[in-house]
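batch_manifest entry 22 of 60
target: SDR family NAD(P)-dependent oxidoreductase
source organism: Thermobifida halotolerans
requested by: lab member K.T.
priority: normal
notes from requester: please return tokens only, no post-processing; we will run our own comparison against the previous entry in this batch. if the run fails, retry once and flag.
--- input ---
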Amino acid sequence: MTDRPLTIAITGASSGIGLRAAERLAADGHRVHAICRDPDRGAAAVARISVAARHPARLVLADLADQKSVAAAADRLGDELDHLDVLVNNAAVFDQTIRRPRFTADGHELFWATNHLGPFRLTAALSRLLAAAPRPRVVTVASKGLVTMPRIRIRFDALDSADWYTPTRAYYHAKLAQVMMSHSLALRAAGRADVACVRVPSVRLDPGRVAAMPRLLRVLYAPKNRIAHPPERIAETYARVATRDSVWSDHADPGGDARAALRGVYLDENERPVDAPAFAYDEEARERLWAVSQGATGDPGWAW
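--- output ---
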């Protein structure tokens, strides 16, 4: 683990794992930029993060579902920083009360826009700041729930269609895309930036988030919430991955099959390399997803 203070940006830092990871990283002496959607919750989070921080945390406002907001946040970081050591793409929407699909001003389904297109656009926009760091790293987040869906695929012909929508389908569809983005970025930036995608297990929700649920959903979720991992536990994983000395390719076998060649990108909560869903190893599908994502986010430039 590095002893050098790192400059780290983390999305979704106003609650849950993101807040705890930001607290831990700031307490360890790193310079944390908390990227949050809501200004009031963001300000409260930054105040909390800064209590034990060696360097006061900075608030950056961004709604990942809004491409203009993402671009503005990246511009602000570009004005303030000469490099960025780590980007943690943590923010995601998984609101089970959204029973009908919602669409952004750009016409994208909300889960797809927030959980995939937003992180894709933000990573591209910050790639030059990352490339200016001595050992840049991009950390993205997927879900352990994908193990129950071994045949899940990207619905290229219906990415924003309402026909197949449920909040669960939309969430895991976008999370598969995040794994595939991580695989593609790891290969594109090989030797120049480290890439990790953390497979997050079920995590206990904050009390305020549970209280906001409809009564029936609270009752149904209560047993799961009791046995779920505390967010502090997974925040420790984030912090260790963000500051590790190793890189994903230390675990890979370039001469092996697709899984072996990418081993080390996808990690469980104990930072052990694990297999991703089969579709994430389909090179043609990954390239197609990259092209589709480029087009949907305004064809951003990349440092790698």
